[in-house]
Structures are given as structure tokens and as C-alpha cells.
Design brief:
With 279 residues, this protein is of the alpha+beta class. It is 62% helix and 10% strand.
Length: 279
Amino acid sequence: MTGRGNKERVHTSLPHTPSDSDDEVLDVTAVLYEDIHVPSQQDPEPLIKSRLRDEAEHVTIGQAGNNLLYANSGGHRLLEEMEQMKRDIGILIAKDEKKTNQIDEHQKQIEEHQKHISSLEDRVKGLVQTSEGYLSIRRRFLDVYKRDVKGMKELKGSKAIREGNLIAHAGDAFGDAVLFDRDQRTDRSIYRELYGLDHQQVLHFHSAGDDGGLFLVLNAHASEVSQGKPLPDDVKVAFNSFLAKVEEYWLQPPRQDPDTPLGSAYYTFWKIFNQRAQQ
């Protein structure tokens, strides 16, 4: 007690102690709680004991969970405050759990949006690629008209005509896959003959990023097959071996490392293909 007017809070919880003759145990909680002003010059102990004895004469019976409760008015008030604190804490915990769930839900939405954005970016990339090819063909059309109809012989072998010829007569695995994906073509067996894969597989590999030369190989194969000449057996074997490694290792970069199974198959194909092209 450090000064006049200070309050001393005394809280005692006394469980009931049964006697030897009791047949059953009765759980009782006794609570005395009182604010006591102790003068700074006075010994606090006698005053505290006296006040507690007085308060013990004014206890009332109540219920504290499964226990009987004996408490003075201060004790009842203390227990009510404790119960309110428990309820308040429960409310805070529930709010925190709700916020956590909302954060988890927002994170899922963000991930879904990111997937959607990635899909849109792939579509835009594909549209750019196919539109560039289409524009090359249109430039070729205009230059061929000027050369053949308007007599502008200087356009023979022009860059626009050469590039357009390459686009028109060469394989384009992704561009052709888009046609099938949009149901603008239904002869899917023809696509597989040219490219060795289904168009869904090609679109899937395209979405993963083509840093392994997959489309160069597919387009080269389709360009050769489209000429109607049978491919040499060693080219067929190298092509099919490369496709088998693509399906197994495509999602395991680096893809063009010659020391990996996929990279080795890639360089083997081009070695054999180029040797045949030079014959």
C-alpha cells in the first residue's frame, strides 16, 4: 500500500473440500472480490481480513459452469466480466478466421485471374504469329498481281513474294492447330500426318513456351511431307524419336541442352534431316 486511497483487490477461489462422510463430491466455487481502500500509514492485513469476513456474510448462491457458486456482489461482477471477455475473444477469433478465409479466397481469385491473363497472352501471341503469316501471303498476292498482270517484271523474286511462298507452302504447326481448335477444320488425321501430334498437344506445348525448337522440327517435317515424297526411314526414325522425348521431357528445361535426352534427340533429327536435304 503505497498511498492513501489505493485499492487492494482480493480474489479468492475456494473449492469445496468434502468430509470423509460425504458419499458424493460436490464441486463448489467460492469467490470474494472487493476493492479496499487502505490508508498508507495503517497495517493492511487486519483491515483486509475484516472486510473479507464481512463480505463472506453477504455471499449469494449461483452457478459457475457445472459448479455451484458462492460469491459476493464483487465476485459475481468479476465472473461476469470474465465471461464477457471470453465472448469478446471468441468474436475476435471468429473475425480473424473470417478474414483468413477471405484472404485465402482472394488468393485463389488472384491465381485464377493470373491463369486467365496467361491464357489471353498466349492467344494474343498466337494471333500475332498467324496474322503475320497471313499478311505475308497478302503481300505476296499483291506483288504477284503487279508482276504477272501489270507486267512489272522487276518484282520477279521480290522479298514479299519469297516470304509469301515460304508461308504458303511451309508447315505452320501452331497456325494450323488454331484452325482445328476453332472448328474451322475437322480432318484431324491430316494434321497428325503432317505434324506427328494432335493439334491439342501442339497447343498445350505452345502454351508452355517453345524454347526447345519443337515447332521448327514440326514445321520442317510437315513441309517435307506436304511435297508428296516419302520420307527416308532414318528421318522418320529421328522424327518419331524426337516426338517421344518431347512428350516425356518437354516440361523439364533446359530443352536444347545436347546432354539431355530431349536435346540429344533434337540435334540428332537436324543432323539427319540436313544431311538428307543436301543429297
